[in-house]
Write a structure and sequence with these properties.
The structure is a single chain. The chain is built from 5 helices and 8 strands, in the order βββαβαβαβαββα. With 168 residues, it is α/β, with parallel strands linked by helices. It has a domain of 45 residues. The relative contact order is 0.23. The model has no long low-confidence stretch (mean pLDDT 94). Bound molecules: 5-nitro-6-ribityl-amino-2,4(1H,3H)-pyrimidinedione (INI). The site of 5-nitro-6-ribityl-amino-2,4(1H,3H)-pyrimidinedione (INI) has 16 residues, from strand 5 and helix 3. 5-nitro-6-ribityl-amino-2,4(1H,3H)-pyrimidinedione binds next to strand 5 and helix 3.
């Protein structure tokens, strides 16, 4: 396998190949649920900010909205099939209610997004909050728990960079 030289480090005994957090010349799509928008809009802001801070051009960032977290995998599947993006970042907020609905939405959302990532070999950042309360979600959407939208961007970016280096 041919390994691109960027991101390659040599130590005394082993070669380490890892992704770089450089978003220049990459295209990204953020797919975000509208459900719980007061929370999700902060995740979107955090994700866009993280992409720009790491060198992404605004014109290389697209945002697609879907009704709820349950719909994220289908939109991500279509976007992955287009093969237009180096990484997809899925954002949403699922908050536990009185019924098992929460568990179905979370399980299918996570499994569906992972399936898209593996089927199309495209990084899918998982920035879907799964919380017991609105306060917990707010904390993780730009509050004291950081911004999981930004965290999802960094993971997706690192993987996009890694996959470029591992091109066969
Ligand atoms: N969708 C969410 O994104 N977050 C939630 O907390 C949520 N709850 O609690 O119901 C939710 N439900 C909607 C779901 O994602 C679908 O949009 C809906 O079932 C229609 O398919």
């Amino acid at each position: 396998m041919w390994i691109r030289p960027t991101g390659r480090r040599r130590t005394e005994r082993m070669r380490i190949i890892e992704g770089q957090l450089v978003a220049r010349d990459m295209r990204f799509v953020i797919v975000a649920a509208r459900f719980n928008d007061l929370i999700v809009r902060n995740l979107v802001d955090g994700a866009v900010d993280a992409l720009k801070r790491h060198g992404a051009a605004e014109t290389d960032i697209h945002v697609v909205r879907v009704p709820g977290a349950f719909e994220l995998p289908l939109a991500a599947h279509r976007l992955a099939r287009l093969r237009r993006y180096d990484a997809i970042v899925a954002l949403g907020a699922v908050i536990r209610g009185q019924t098992p609905h929460f568990d179905f939405v979370c399980t299918e959302c996570a499994a569906g997004l992972n399936r898209v990532s593996l089927e199309f070999e495209v990084p899918v950042g998982f920035g879907v909050l799964t919380c017991d309360t609105v306060d917990q979600a707010m904390d993780r959407a730009g509050g004291k728990g950081g911004n999981k939208g930004a965290d999802a961007v960094l993971a997706a970016l690192e993987m996009a960079s890694l996959l470029r280096q591992l091109e066969g």
